[in-house]
Design brief:
Blueprint lengths: L10 H116 L1 H15 L1 H4 L12 H40 L16 E6 L6 E6 L7 H13 L1 H6 L4 H16 L4 H18 L2
Helix pairs in contact: 7-8
């Protein structure tokens, strides 16, 4: 078998492979540099992106907060102005109400003061002797030391007897007046007790008897259409509801007949007596005029 030996020169190949190795190393260095540059660029881009995102988010939040602040500030200013306006209006209402209150209170104070004086006069007229005794005689008795006759401390001996006689006579006169007033008061009290005993009923009977009881019946206008109504008022705690209803039906059914009887002599006498009492009353002229007009109008209406 033949053997062939060949000698191949690989110097050029090795040299070229060496160049290839250098190029591969250069490429590796380039790739590494590129990777480092890419990583640095990505870091810069990520940082830039994060900064922009943070700045944009901050700007967005700041803008929203600024808008809300502006909105709430505008609402606050409007409500503050509204509250200030309402405060002024309330203060004006308060001042007006205080003025009206003082005016109305002064008016009613005058009205009730006049009513008090009129009621006091009327109450005093109910039992004039007792009132005169309490306000006039008792006051004089309480102030008797002031009304006693005084004597001059320096006087002659012969005038002492006369002065004592004068003082004693004055004291006797005053005592006589006090005794008469007390006697009159006791007599009137006794008379009142007798009248009360005659009026009051101590016992009651189950038998059927005719009894008299005062009632008040008045007629009034219900509405603007001049529709009239009538009502009967009874003394309290004297009759049952059934008796009151039956008596009311009887009286209201005879209302027209009662109106026709207003021209009898008794009514004329009542009218004259009432006018006399109005003239003799110590009330004010306005009260007298109103009472007279009310009575005259009622009398004229009932006689139509």
């Amino acid at each position: 078998m033949a053997v062939f030996n060949y000698k191949i020169d690989t110097q050029d190949l090795a040299q070229e492979l060496g160049n290839v190795t250098k190029n591969v190393d250069a490429a590796t260095d380039a790739v590494v540099s590129l990777q480092s540059a890419v990583i640095a660029a990505e870091e810069r881009a990520a940082k830039h992106l994060c900064d922009n995102v943070n700045r944009g988010f901050y700007s967005l939040i700041h803008s929203q907060i600024s808008q809300k602040i502006a909105k709430y500030k505008s609402e606050f200013e409007s409500k503050r102005m509204l509250l200030a306006h309402q405060k002024k209006a309330l203060l004006a209402i308060k001042i007006r109400m205080e003025r009206d209150y003082h005016m109305i209170s002064s008016r009613y104070e005058k009205l009730f003061s006049g009513l008090n004086r009129i009621l006091q006069t009327r109450i005093f007229e109910l039992d004039k002797p007792l009132v005169d005794f309490s306000y006039r005689d008792v006051g004089k008795i309480s102030n008797r030391t002031k009304s006693l006759s005084a004597t001059v401390p320096v006087t002659q001996l012969e005038s002492i007897t006369s002065s004592q006689i004068v003082v004693a006579s004055d004291i006797k006169r005053k005592c006589f007046n006090v005794i008469n007033s007390s006697k009159k008061f006791i007599q009137e009290m006794k008379s009142q007790e007798e009248i009360t005993k005659r009026v009051l009923v101590d016992d009651y009977s189950d038998k059927s008897h005719e009894r008299l009881m005062p009632v008040l019946m008045y007629e009034f206008i219900k509405d603007r259409n001049s529709i009239t109504g009538a009502e009967v008022i009874f003394p309290q705690n004297h009759l049952t509801e059934s008796f009151e209803s039956s008596i009311s039906e009887i009286l209201l059914s005879d209302l027209d007949r009662l109106k026709m009887e207003l021209d009898n002599p008794q009514w004329i006498e009542i009218q004259t007596e009432l006018k006399k009492q109005i003239m003799d009353s110590k009330a004010s002229a306005r009260v007298k005029e109103v009472a007279h007009n009310l009575f005259s109008q009622n009398f004229s209406i009932n006689n139509i």
